[in-house]
Amino acid sequence: MASVYNDLNRPPLNETRLQRALMVPGLGFGGHSVAALRVLPEVDSTNTALLAAAADGAPHGSVVVAEAQTAGRGRLGRTWVAPPRSGLFLSVLLRPDVPSARWGWLPLLAGVAVHSAVARVAHLDVALKWPNDLIVPGPDEPGPDVPDTDAPSGYGAGRKLGGILAEQGGAPSQPCVVVGIGINVTLREEELPAPHATSLVLAGAEVTDRDTLLRAVLRGFGSWYADWAESGGDAERCGLAAAYRAVCATLDRPVRAELPGGAVVTGQATGIDPDGRLLIRTADGTSTPIGAGDVVHLR
């Protein structure tokens, strides 16, 4: 269904203005806040577009933003659907000079940057659901320390505001990671792709200007990336692990992890290991690291 909202409600992003604001000398993505930035009217997927650009030699710190995606992707092959200009749809190209075993922290790092930007700019109470979802806590769970209910979506009383998808690419001699970020900004109830979704507008955000949000997300991402890379990918030493734990709604609660291949691990989510994996303590006391899968929050 086509959106009824016009440019007055959903103004386009200004590529030139964003380039001037973000492609400046400094820390962040290796010498500049952003190495290159393009705003495209429509792509199949920003991750797909940037992975192709990476294969052609696009530099570390390149960013692709789209006003609309025709085949946006989420984790585990899921689709990401939203009307044009109703959200932030972007991808960042990274060529980390740290051990690849630590690259599992990149979607979590992006999550911390997105959480901080939304909380600071939109003045909205949000939390992270491991590994890659930004959620708005439900009315009976005011923050990440309060358990939600078991629900088919896995979010309980919370509602999904955004998500992150990290994909590896590049040649074996020059590997890269593309981190895709999607945030629902102005979607109305009838435009939501799923019952457990929400948007900044529906959640009562004070600010929904996409330009302001995009700048905050990328500056925060660049700052955290610089600290993480300087520490050799040591999330504890650079403070990333502590920052993630402070806003993660998955920790210190019963969970069920549904793994690729059909295996299920149920227990208490106790922490994040040095490689960014979720640690679940099962009934027999075993601590099981989970690197991929769907995690359901249980009461």
From TrEMBL:
Residues 21-229 form the BPL/LPL catalytic domain. One of its GO terms (molecular function) is biotin--[biotin carboxyl-carrier protein] ligase activity. GO terms for cellular component: cytoplasm. Pfam families: BPL_C (PF02237), BPL_LplA_LipB (PF03099). Its EC number is 6.3.4.15. The keyword DNA damage does not apply. It comes from the Bacteria. It is an enzyme of class 6 (ligase). Keywords: ATP-binding, Biotin, Ligase, Nucleotide-binding. InterPro entries: aa-tRNA-synth_II/BPL/LPL, Biotin_CoA_COase_ligase, BPL_C, BPL_LPL_catalytic, Transcriptional_repressor_C. PANTHER family: BIOTIN PROTEIN LIGASE, BIOTIN--PROTEIN LIGASE. This is biotin--[biotin carboxyl-carrier protein] ligase. It comes from Actinocrinis puniceicyclus.
